Amino acid sequence: MARARTSSGKVRLTEVAKLAGVSPITASRFFRNPEALSPGKRERVENAARQLGYVPDLAARALASRRTEVIGVLIPSFTNNVFSDVLRGIYDGSGESRYSIQLVNTHYSILQEEKLLQLFKAQRPAGLVVTGINQTDESRAILESMNCPIVQIMELGPDPVDMMVGFSHNAAAFEVISHLISLNFKRIGFLGARMDPRVQRRLEGYTDAMKRASLYDPRLIIATPVPTSVTMGGTLFADLLMKAPDIDAVFCVNDDLALGTLFECQRRQIQVPEDVAIVGFNDLEYMASAVPPLTSVRTNRYDMGKTAITMVMDAIEGRRPATSVIDLGYELMIRRSSAARRA
Amino acid sequence: MARARTSSGKVRLTEVAKLAGVSPITASRFFRNPEALSPGKRERVENAARQLGYVPDLAARALASRRTEVIGVLIPSFTNNVFSDVLRGIYDGSGESRYSIQLVNTHYSILQEEKLLQLFKAQRPAGLVVTGINQTDESRAILESMNCPIVQIMELGPDPVDMMVGFSHNAAAFEVISHLISLNFKRIGFLGARMDPRVQRRLEGYTDAMKRASLYDPRLIIATPVPTSVTMGGTLFADLLMKAPDIDAVFCVNDDLALGTLFECQRRQIQVPEDVAIVGFNDLEYMASAVPPLTSVRTNRYDMGKTAITMVMDAIEGRRPATSVIDLGYELMIRRSSAARRA
DNA sequence: CAATGCAGTGGTAGCGCTGTCAATAATCAT
DNA sequence: ATGATTATTGACAGCGCTACCACTGCATTG
User: Fold this and answer.
1) Which of A6, A258, B156, B316 has the smallest number of Cβ neighbours within 10 A?
2) One domain for residues B185 and B157
């Protein structure tokens, strides 16, 4: 039809406008705010666009409008199951929208994060999702100078840059320990790896609860900066047994460590929960089908991602949420691995 | 210093050029191909850019050059551990480059994939990474019309669209079953969930090996389209026991199913491997620390991602690989769960 | 020594779209 | 009926960058 004359045969807005018998600017409006057109023209443009198979050129749009439809997402790790759920929420939430996700990995480094924020700033994203609340001062300054909606996810804190979706890791850990104490466990160990800010807060919750019950003993705590894994769970639990052979329960900062601990117990013929109770964190799917089923803290990771991205998209379009800080909570999933202690 | 006059205070190429005392086009060249400048000007532009904190506007560049520096990546699932490793490889591989990754989720739907490819086509990506080789004819046509390097990952097949990085799922499964048969296992069950193309190929490998040894029996096969999970592993294994109570081994198409099977065995006091041997697939980290350690097929997921993205980036820049199809292989990790059968 | 090549540089002209503002048509209150 | 307001539309002028081609000056060739 020799209509599209660009090298690639790409259909431009002008062609659509011509076919619809309107000016290019009107056609342009159709794609951004159809309500603004009279019904007649709206339909004509719609038909023309469909007929020509028109797809807007995002680069041209970004250049002309001086903004992009990209939402930046900073995540500290791809390995972690936790973040894969968050990501799924983010991608599902943004799937049908006009926004596209630009994902980057900070590798748990706040300096890397700062560098990536700098890069993002130059690209003028429409919105941003960042993990955690422990940004450097520099990062914080960049975030505040960035004229777009921002959601911090995974945890809550006193002064959000803008919006926040998370839950209290501290309170969750406190509740875990309180639960164990109420069942008469006394020598409750703590197993932590990676020790990122969220894990630190779980340690705080543990410490608070133990101190309050006068059960605190630093020998009960194993915390290593090495990455977490099931195997590491077994290793750390073995360390703990060495330091404190009289433990009667273990709180693992994540489910992989808990599973590793369970395997180590099986290897050593330690009965769970009769000899040692085990509690994990995140409630990954496998926790319920382990033998015995493992107690854990259910966190709403998928919802966190979905809520965060929805808040950002809404805010970009001027629909600010009523409350800018959302606590998604957690739920203690009590299973046999922390069943009542024999008297 | 009132130099940047754009509303946002953004520094433009023109400013850099002015400060460096060169024409804008020369400054532009500096960022794309510094070799083309004389050393003197190169340094002057470099200094000017640093001094002004210049960052190129990607939208303007994309519009003017009619190409982007975006590499599209189509993945069928974010939940799956397998893909999180692949993604990590992709992001690590592209991290320091000028390319950015545009990730989309096909949710294991080839129609969704087709739609997403259409979208990508309109954005003229610099390269593309797609999962698998089972595209629709439409998708295939789009891919072929797309004038950019493309890598298909996860498996190998006879006619690559362009490049390929993967391994033979069929051969891997065949080797698993041959291994079990060599240990005198005879009633070897198959547990499959999701049944995506890769899993189908593992079933083919299983079937081939069983038939060749005259051990094939359709009652030994459990295959369901529902998503995979540890819990589902237990459920499917229970089904299998119902259909074929005399099984002496199980090949699970992934490690989650294998772990679920192990748990189900523990629940039913079935000894592994004395009563039933278990083999998984992918060799996730936890397989080695389970009790007993679980046999699995190690696949090079991280390398697959990293290799794929490197091939795409190289090809974009004209460095075509010597061979366009790369077989990353696999390795049978034999552990106690498939130890030799008592005679 | 003219013809040729080539590295290095700059001028011109957009890439495809949208912000701004003005113009017009349609609707309303008085 | 009148001016005022609102809905709808279009003209213009770029957004910041690069493709394309032309030009310069110097080295190489026979």
Assistant:
1) A6
2) no
Picking from A46, A51, A53, A41, the residue whose alpha carbon sits closest to that of residue A9 is A53
A109 and A205 housed in the same domain: no
Is residue B4 included in any domain, yes or no? no
pLDDT at residue B79, rounded to an integer = 86
Contact B263/A229, CB-based, under 8 Å? no
Chain D nucleotides reached by a protein CB under 7 Å: 7-12, 14-20
Q: Is residue A19 part of a domain?
A: yes
Q: E strand or H helix at B71, and its extent? A: strand B70-75
Q: Are residues B264 and B321 in the same domain?
A: no
Instruction: Count Cα neighbours of A44 within 13 Å in the Cβ-side half-sphere.
Output: 18
Q: Kindly state whether residues A70 and A162 are assigned to the same domain.
A: yes
A3-61 pLDDT tens trace: 333 334 578 899 899 898 888 889 999 988 888 888 888 888 999 999 888 888 888 99
Any strand D atom closer than 7 Å to B208 CB: no
Distance D18 C1' – B27 CA (angstroms): 11
Measured between beta carbons, which residues in chain B are less than 8 angstroms from residue A147? 8
**Nearest by CB to A88, which of B58, B79, B267?**
B79
A58 touches strand D (CB under 7 A): no
Shortest Cα distance, chain B CAs vs residue A77, angstroms:
8
- The pLDDT tens digits of the residues spanning B209-226 come to 999 999 999 999 999 999
Residue A180 lies inside a defined structural domain of this protein: yes
Residue type at position B132: G
Residues A177 and A154 in one domain: no
Residue B334 sits at the chain A interface (C-beta within 8 Å) = no
Structure tokens at A113: 């994060």
In chain A, which residues have their Cβ closer than 8 Å to the Cβ of B286?
A: 229-231, 256, 259-260
The answer to whether the beta carbon of residue A29 comes closer than 7 angstroms to any atom of strand D is yes
Smallest CA-to-CA distance from B20 within B54, B60, B69 is with: B54
Instruction: Let me know: does A32 contact A49? Beta carbons within 8 Å.
Output: no
Query: The domain spanning residue B23 has which CATH number?
Result: 1.10.260
Q: Residue B41 CB closer than 7 angstroms to strand C? A: yes
B176 and B271 fall within a common domain? yes
Q: Are B260 and B286 in contact (CB under 8 A)?
A: no
Give the total number of structural domains in chain A: 3
B283 and B173 within one domain? yes
What separation in angstroms does the CA of B103 have from each of A101, B77, B116, B219, B227? 8, 11, 10, 40, 21
Q: Please count the other Cβ atoms lying within 10 Å of the Cβ belonging to residue B109.
A: 12
Q: Determine the residue of chain B that is closest to A55 in CA distance.
A: B122
Residue A78 contacts B, CB cutoff 8 Å? yes
Q: Up-side HSE of residue A135: CA atoms within 13 Å toward CB?
A: 28
Q: Are residues A120 and A263 in the same domain?
A: no
* CATH code, domain with A130: 3.40.50.2300
**Does residue A263 lie in a domain region?**
yes
Block means of pLDDT (10 residues each) for chain A, 343 residues, are: 43 89 90 84 89 88 89 92 93 91 94 90 89 94 90 95 97 98 96 96 98 98 97 98 97 98 98 97 97 98 98 90 95 94 61
Range of the structural domain that residue B38 is part of? 13-56
Q: Is the CB of A119 under 7 A from strand D?
A: no
